[in-house]
Design goal:
The complex is a heterotrimer. By secondary structure, chain B is of the alpha+beta class. Helix content of chain B is 18%, strand content 35%. Chain B has 4 helices and 12 strands. Chain C has a 4-stranded antiparallel β-sheet with strand order 3-4-5-6. In chain C, β1 and β2 form a beta hairpin. The longest helix of chain C has 9 residues. Chain C is globular and about 40 Å long. The chains are: A alpha+beta, B alpha+beta, C alpha+beta.
Amino acid sequence: MTGQRLATGGVIDRARRISFTWDGRRMNGHPGDTLASALIANGERVVARGFKYHRPRGVMAAGPEEGGALVTTGTGARRVPNVKAPEVELYQGLTASGQNAWPSVRFDLGQVNDLMGRFFAAGFYYKTFFGASGKGTWEWMQFEKVIRQAAGMGAASREADPDAYEIVHGFCDVLVIGSGPSGLAAAEQAASDGLDVILAEQDFALGGQLIGSAETVEGATAAGWLEAHSRPLAKARVLSRSTAIGLYDSNVVGLYERVTDHMRDPDEALPRGRLHIIRPGAVILATGAIERPFAFGNNDRPGVMMAGAVARYAERFGVVPGKSAAIATTNDSGYRAAHALAAAGVRTTVLDARDRPGAAAEEALAAGVEVHTSALPIEVTGRTGMDGLDWGTKSAGALRSKGRIYRDCLGVSGGWSPAIHLVCHRGVKPVWHEELQCFLSGAPPEGVSLTGAAAGVFETDAAVSHARAVTAEAVGHLTGRRRAAPNLPGPSGLGEIAPVFEVRVPGRKLKSFADPQHDVTTEDVRQAAREGYVSVEHMKRYTTLGMATDQGKTGGVLGLAVLADALGQTIPETGITTFRPPYTPTPIGVFAGRARGAHWRPTRRTPMQAEQEAAGAVFTDAGLWKRAWYTPLEGETLAEAYVREATIVRESVGMVDVTTLGKIAVQGPDAAELLNRVYVNGFAKLPVMKCRYGVMLRDDGIVYDDGVTWRLGEHEFLMTATTAQAAGVLAWLETLLQTRWPELRVNVASTTDQWAGVAVAGPRARAALEPLVADAMNNEALPFMGILRSHVTVEGGQIPVLIARISFSGEMAYEVYTPSDYGPALWRAIQTRVAAEGGAPYGMEALGALRIEKGHVTHAELDGRVTLEDAGLGRMASTKKPFIGQALRQRPDLARSDRPQLAHFEPVDPDQRFSIGAIVCEPEHVEGHGIGWITGVTVAPAFGGRWIGIGLVNGGPEAWEGREVVIADPVRGKECRARVFPAHRYDPKGERMHG
Amino acid sequence: MVERVSALEGHHGSRRVGSVGKVGAGVVLSEQRIGSLWQLASWPDRLNAVGAAAAQLAGVEKAPAPGRVAVGSHGRLIRVEALKWLLERPEGAEDPSLPIENGTVLDLSHARTLIRIEGSAASELITRLVAIDIRPVEFPEGAAAQTAYHGVGLTLIRRGKGFDILVFRSFALTLWEELAEIGAQFGCEIA
Amino acid sequence: MLRIRCPICGLRDHTEFVYEGDATVKYPALDASEDAWFDAVFQRENPRGPHAELWHHTGGCRSLLVVERDTLTHEIRSVRLAHEATAEAIE
């Protein structure tokens, strides 16, 4: 027999129907249902298969602790595996299916695994295939594929997640987690004290265990109390469908809010989920408790549930999981289910493990429930679902069989585990409470309080008064208005609890599960103990008990109790495994938030991007910047375009957007002194309106960055840094000024965004610019490394510019800067003139070609391992003043003459080519790491269109003069003989750029 | 006069994104053009002198403390760094200067873009942008915070019924696009 | 998430800051010996408990801060500006 919907009862909207699809079949439910309650109402018992043994599984719980009903929801890219059915809010059109089964959960061919259980016992993977018995990695990989196929959890979609997520930053005075009676009371208390409160609830409804409950709270009905005490929350912010997934340092809480999962046609503008990062003044954990099972034979059969879940389904959803029921309990709480079932007219038998159950049993008997004392379940019968129960009674320490009763559902309660996961995320160790037979939180960190069942206060009225008192204390602490500490109710409220964790009968082989979600049996735990995994953390990893999505909710205490028993020690001696965030599985997309797709990182754009786009430029990423890579003429390839662009620069004139160069204003009476200390070369005597190339080292003597610094005034410099290092250089200067040299009066600030820059390079550069510039640009007025402050005529008038005569290409070249908003006008004006001189824009690829020809280093060479000498810049180091890195650059290993040094490479056979990253080797030793590496390659118009490269080779060009090397590319299986030349081979005297 | 071209050129215009039809425009994004924006930086022992000069330039009684904005007859002063003020004034304002013994000045008029966020959901939008406690008690009228979104620095100011955001010019368009994407759920109007 | 109370900006997430290492290191003069520089650059204590650290508020006011943090509990006991003259001026 199976579950059914009761004619009355439950907090569901019976007037409205919801249709949904389960395993391809249409079914109905009501608003207020979860997938689990609707499946029970539709008589579905087998809703999943265990992931190792493929045993049938049904709904076992009514919350995130569910260990049986793990299902797959959605289809296509929105398919989500391993969803716990009690957490799925039912909505019109929901599609869900069972998992770990083929062809279906009702008839699964994988069930054969159950017969081969010994192969899947604890540690099976490791022992059988992993390295042992002469089997190697290859064998393991083959077996592993098969095992993963046969014993895996549900399959995720292989498509990209189509949904959007976002991160929301929250602040409040008091964050209350959980909206059961204690959570509501806490939130109400804090709000009435005038504090800013957020109340978070993982369910879609507030009230926790009070929803649909028949109990009375402070003399009122549960429904009445709920209504009265929800009203004051109008002033609070209530986040339902929001699970607290982690509690972090500074009491920051992560909440995952399910925004659209329960909607049929969500607004496309809504994210699927939000990660609320809340920074509260105080956190009140009213997270309740999770009921603990105990183990007996076939305790995973569909029909076997937690007793509290049986009660919850009957009270809140008006469904019962069977026509007749048994309750196996070790404490008073199991009777709640017995009463709920009796009220629904379900024949119910209670097996109470205690010898003298007391008042709870009396009341049940009075309600017509059959009660057996000292009674325990032994083994459930039935193949795909429970049809009976073998049970027995204890007397004088022995369990005597009492035969079989025929029942189709069983509620189990072995006690309760307070949900202390969040506080444990802060490193708090749980403490065993002997009387309540559960772990309570150790002393929580400042600003965190636990209340209600989470604090071990199980009785509702006591929990409510506990919550008010704890909150008043937290509020007093926050506001400084301390009040006299009230007397807190202590942990209590389950009555006497019999310490039962597993029922074993000598001579009877039982398959008893400690963690049904991970298919870990009590025998697996004992085996782990026998094999020496005596630490609870080792046992957990060896057996997988309580791992992954369970995080010890169901399997934890039971598993360690079995381990303690096997080791002959107590539970506190054995300890408990560590709870880690997230508390429940969380879509990984939410941690990225909006940082995905086009916005996976921010994009920086120059003011001239639109002009270059209009000209047909193809862009590439340079750090966060978009830069023109090349601008092809019709039909041109990248290779053709960049060679043409580079040739134009050598022969007439080219222009390139250099806005991205990092620019730092260095101002103040000690600005020159700062530069003198950070650059290896001198800057103190640099004349005003002149610029100079500088190199800076790190403290350890390695090259950090290079760039040209302009002196705009006595106390005013404009430093340029490489695009990629600009932020780092600014931070470095700030660090030096604020910590090492606090006496220097220098202001540094980024001005990268203030200036748009265009470099104009080539023999016709001056001719191109002169007609635009208001002042003279001849060699006297603007010599090499000179600066001119002037105006440029553009459409509509004149714009202010700073022009520096700087060359990166080796040709006559100028960098023209104007305030950014004038950038587009500047670009258009120069482009017209450049075109008139037969020139064109060039991009990053041509820029690379030109600098390789000229032998200028970039961060391809300055990779954090290179010294000044390695880069061929040794002569720049001043001997007249100290600078950063000076001491440590003299370390013997950095001063060796056979270190890799900058060089120019050309293939011996002009038809051969080599690639970036290729290894430079001695001809007779083409192996290993070689003696150098290639950092840049290009077709070189300046060298007759030959293939050339730049890179580093041991000893530098001097050591290899007149000798060949082999440039090896083992990845591509290529080798190329090459000659080595000094890096500055093109126009070594600089006549072209000085011209 | 050559016209200044905004970083958001071509991306303004009366557009509506997201759920405006269903929920109305909860968020209105607009650009406020910056005229003149200068940084005034003081040496530590000259803070009072530079503060007085800054106050005079903006036409306020007293230069604001860190985390505050002061609005005066000539412009406004924003303070988000220990020893620096940002002086925002209309286009055409005379370049400020400071004696080098007191501090330095720096023109940033083209280095920032100013985005205005208004509407009933403006605060909601900000909570999805930055980790700043903008509850009115903590972040009242005239409050300013230097913070970062997605690693990009920005200055957040509460002004009137909305917020001003100063962002680096080169990042302005990326932020503008993201604001519209986040704002869509509240109904977003782009002025 | 650590929250650091910046003297200029107030309480902020640690993600706004860049950790810059041990605040107690005294760097020698630029022309000091290789040995002195070697010690300053490479030799570090790894204390368990209170530790003075430099944090750079790059995502905020760009101040360098001396943060006294317990490496065991992550408790932050004090935060001050590294630049003393600025700290005095701000008071």
